[in-house]
UniProtKB/TrEMBL annotation:
Top-level lineage group: Eukaryota
Keyword Signal attached: yes
Keywords, comma-separated and alphabetical: Signal
UniProt name for this protein: FAS1 domain-containing protein
Signal peptide: 1-17
FAS1 domain boundaries: 23-147, 163-300
PROSITE patterns per the UniProt record, alphabetical: FAS1 (PS50213)
Family, per entry: Belongs to the fasciclin-like AGP family.
Amino acid sequence: MKQSAFVFVLFFSLAGALPREAIFDAADVLSDSGFVSMALTLEVVAETLLEQSPSATVFAPSDSAFKKSGQPSLDLLRFHLAPLPLTPSSLRLLTAGAKIPTMLSGQSLTATTSSADRLTSINNIKLTQSPIYDDGSLLVYGIDRFFDPNFQLPSSSDSNSSCSAKNHTASVSDSFNQAIQTLKTGGYSAVAAFLEMQLFGVAEFSGITVFAPADDLVLNRIGDFSQYPSFFRRHVVPCRLLWNDLVNFDDGSELSSFLEGFTINITRSGGVLVFNGVPVFFPDVFFNDRIVVHGVSNILASQNTAFRHNAHVVDYEGNLFDTSEF
């Protein structure tokens, strides 16, 4: 059994964009800190890459890395940029195998920090202990060499997704308790309470995937207690799908949810995977052998019928909820 805590108190906003001044300030600090090559590169690609996002984290290779590898391609630079602000505390919450989305479409970095490590490690490369630059929206960490886009952790049979019943070594109770405790400590208490009260036990069939909005989004959108069951059911899919499974779906694919008639449409926007128009910025918030949770940046709303026309529908047999139960 394996779990991953990819939990961030900071939540990504779709409004606005990184100011050019912040990017050039970061470049100045990089240059003063001995990362001259990345400082110059950052200035050149600022308009193309960073100014399209309201927040970002940059992983800056050292001058010696540039000298050894030469000027990186634009795609390789995108692989060193994450479209969210990763603080040191949030990075330390990552367990080995957690995925970090990048600005290179369909490509993620992998957390490789072990419990014995003093420094955070990504793709088996250690980061500087503190950000070289941090203004709250833009953070820059130093690394001693370029990330390898082909990096993979050794495969493990217990991390494979499954959409069919199988023998499990852990009890359903254990699986849910792990997910609930992780979500409660990471700003997803509303979703955790829903799992505890309404979904306890259903993952014993084929597993579930939860698209979890943060607490502030939930509390701001629903006030009537009678709306809670349908609100949460539409954020849950009766199938266990890790981030690596989701990125392999074609644009226009649809996932059935626990809310009858509500489907989740998968598309891409600027290389970012989106569900009913809502980006997933925190993949694999939690996963074990029955449950996968992905953090989303907003509430999932229904899509226009025309938007779903001719889409490939990924359906699942039956609905594990008895609609008369609530």
